[in-house]
Sequence to fold (881 residues):
Amino acid sequence: MIKYLIKRILWMIPMLIGISLISFFIMHLAPGDITSSEAAFNPKASEESRQKLRELYNLDKPVIIQYGLWLKRMVELDFGNSFASHQRPVLWEKKDANGNVIKGLIQESLPITLLINLIGIFLIFSVSIVLGTISAVKQNSVVDKSITFFIFVAFAIPGFWLALLLMYWTGVVNQWLPISGLHSLDYKSFSEIGQFFDLLKHLILPVSISMLSGLAGISLYVRNGMLDVLHQDFITTARSKGLKEKNVIFTHALKNAILPLITIIGLSIPGLIGGSVIAESIFAIPGMGKLFYDSVLMRDFPVIMGILTIGSVLTLIGTLIADIGYAWADPRIRKGLVK
Amino acid sequence: MKQNFLLICSLIFIISCSNNNSEVIDYNDNNLSTGGVLINAMSAEPSNLISMIAGDSASSAIASKIFNSLIRYDENLNFTSDIAESWKISNDQKTITFKIKKGLEWSDGEPLTSADVYFTWKLITNPNTRTPYGSDYALVSEASTPDANTFIVTYDDNYAPALDTWASLEILPKHILENEDINSTFFSRKPTGSNYYKLGDWVSGQQVNLIKSENGVLGAAYIEKLTSRIIPDTSSQFLELSAGNIDLMNINPIQFKRVFPAKPKLKNRTALYKEMGNGYTYLGFNLKREPFNDKKVRQAINYAINKDEVIKGVLLGLGEPISSPYKPGTRWSDPSLKPYEYSPKKALNLLKEAGYKMSDDNFLVKDGKTLEFEIITNQNKQREMTAVLIQRRLKEIGIKVSIRVIEWASFVNRFIKPGDFDVVVLGWSLSLDPDQFNIWHSSQQGPGQFNFVGYDNKKVDQLLEKGRRELNLDKREQIYHEFSRQLLDDSPIVYLYAGYGLTAVNKRIKGIKSPAPPAGIYHNSQDWFIPKSLRRNELTNK
Fold:
């Protein structure tokens, strides 16, 4: 088992280099660089000055050399500085000579995206397991059909549209919830608990919206898994033994039915750092989605590469965790690995 | 996300049914007093507050309230004093002497002197400074500071746009930046300035707070605190405005014309302002390609496009046709010039003169080739709609047009730079200085330069060179009127429209000039105020 793990982890290094190489080249395939943003299309900015900027950012060198420079920095775990945001560090804060702290871009965007996604995934999985189980147990009943109907409607509704309607209803007509943003304007004057509840209040809408579209997939997954299991012989055996239906479903069926969810949880780990550009724009949340989108539009190469690298590391770790989790939960797979 | 406005329209009917229980506020209180908070919405976060490096409009909007230049534009777009109380141009027009006001201070109390101005000039001309704007200032051959209140610059050659360049260079404090690397300094997020506001705090991605500064170069402002909330989506901004959470936002023509009139309650507490915008939209030909090298074809297309229809369709009438690249109403724009009228007849006659004949399938043909081309533009809803309207009008007179919409960076690098296009729909700014050398001089056609349409007219070249060297305003005016006339006649681009800038402001904000002066409503933001009875906390206490 340990030998297997070490092998897997060592394999990640060439994989990462491959992924970064491909991303780097694809990124440079798109025409343009930081000097061709819309703001730079200004008659007061001469082509010579822009050429000079390109040289200062090493953008005049061949792509392979730029990649080499990037890789050299990455080996020292230095993600570099953003082109577009005045040389701010991509990943983590740096201190200058006078002790002024300059915060990193990912450092500022990641926590909020992570928080929203963690709450979102937790809610999606808990609600989906409940809904999926009910649907399966009461298969083809009115309850089953209305649940399926509800989750499909939730899935099909465009998130931004529903978001605006909810913002209007809860924010303008009734003034129950804040419309956009993460904090009230005067949140710094609140106590710590006050600040926490202020943040929660601001997160209710964005989290609900991000949750709704995720429900459909997972609850259908649970429903189908559950139906499969319920039709198997050992369930019939359990029932014929005279076990209570509650025990049959929760102890015997559900455990088997949600086993495949481990893979999904593992695979959703890289998704934790990604945010929806549309949702973040509508709710004015400065998260990772907006950061990545803006960086692509600005051709802010260090930031794009930084986010892609973190994303690919997390994807690799996610699949590893999914495999390990599977082995831990299912003795059949564990045996296969040891062999 | 702009599509969402339609959605807002669909919301209107819900609004009209809903019961808004807020009490009636009397907006007629006009008692001037200091204090209060103005909350406005911005679509993007400033990238950094050192404008010579930033370049995005969000940054300059904030930075302009923190920093001063040597001189500035007044409400009628004439130069007036800022840090410099006066300036003098030498007889040979090569030297400008700025007299700096005495006793000026940075917001931290340090004195602001000519040394700061000299330092800023050194900084922007330093090759290691990552600014795209250095070239104008590199033309200064000699700068000196004989005393703390005098700053003298000398140019090798007369340079008429010089005053404009000094009006756009924001002066930075030497005592803080002397030993900093301008390219990565903390100063860009924690600046010390000299204007009527100073930075309070900046919550990344969410809000920038400016606090009134008592020792500003132009005196103090009335409003105590300016909060700029960063809300990327304009529909969300609009909801915040409807809920009364923000006081000011830029709106689009649909909101101006359709949404506000349909919401009487919101309209009662909101004032709408329109002002001449800062840019114009045009249809530009690739003059190096057939058939656009033929002036008659260009003029024909100009006649065939109905500009009023475009303004009505795209801007709901909130724009103006123009006939020169200058703001209507300023001295540089020649009122005697008129745009090409809409006349399909004239267009067809010109095309026939150019050798085109109508074919059986109703398209114009010359030497066996149908008159057809592709309009390209970037992802901008207004430009896309404009292209569609043009496509239809040109089809009517027998020109086959296709449209392609491309992402900005690809658009510039794949098509504009290599000159690989037929026709573009794009925009230029209506610059305050009339110099258009970079856009229209025949020497400016290299890859990455701005005369990408390939305009080449010896007479215009001479006028542009002359205009750059002439510092006498009246003579300059004549030169640029002549230039505009020639440009309009050659029709290398078709001027389509200059849209209005539209702003919605809560009526609690007083002191905004209406109708807006040529410089726009923001130029006197220092004099805006909020009467005591209309402030937020007063209202909630009631």
About this structure: Chain A touches chain B through 64 residues (CB under 8 Å). Chain A is about 70% helix and 0% strand.
